[in-house]
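User: I'm putting together a teaching handout on how sequence relates to shape, and I'd like one worked example. Could you take Circularly permuted type 2 ATP-grasp protein from Candidatus Thiodiazotropha taylori, show the sequence you're using, and then write out its predicted structure as tokens right after it?

Assistant: Happy to. First the sequence, then the structure tokens directly below it.
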Amino acid sequence: MTINRESFENQPFFDELITPNGHARGYARKLISYLGKLDEGELASRQLGAELALKQMGITFRVYTEEEGSIDRVWPFDIVPRLIPKKEWERIESGLKQRVEALNLFIDDLYHKQQIVKDKVFPAEVLADSENFREQCIGINPPLGVWAHICGSDLVRDDKGEM
């Protein structure tokens, strides 16, 4: 597969691999070089293979809709890795850790003092109507205060490439 930089169309969004002048970003050069050596269709074939493997292994997540109820979907996966330079990752990592800590504190408050409800920051009716709130967990203290063992956080860049 060859990457034809001349025909590469720049769009009004930040491209993590290619600069506006059509060259590989410094941290992406090895990946772009590797991808450029693949035969035509090889990347698509690998993507399909990865998606089939995820499906066969049952790696799914549940989507809830009013029309169809709950639906299991295969976990979205891009065969091209997302490259994040070390310095940028250190900043992102700090924010992700902070987000998970806040989530665990939020859940812990709901199962203990419910201060967030008393302060009217979180609506009492949302908690009362929640099918996922487990009264059996009121007063429980999980090891290390970890309620959320898995957290999916979206990383989104603006048109300048900032997260």
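A couple of points you could highlight for students: Strands lie at 60-65, 69-74. The chain has a mean pLDDT of 90.
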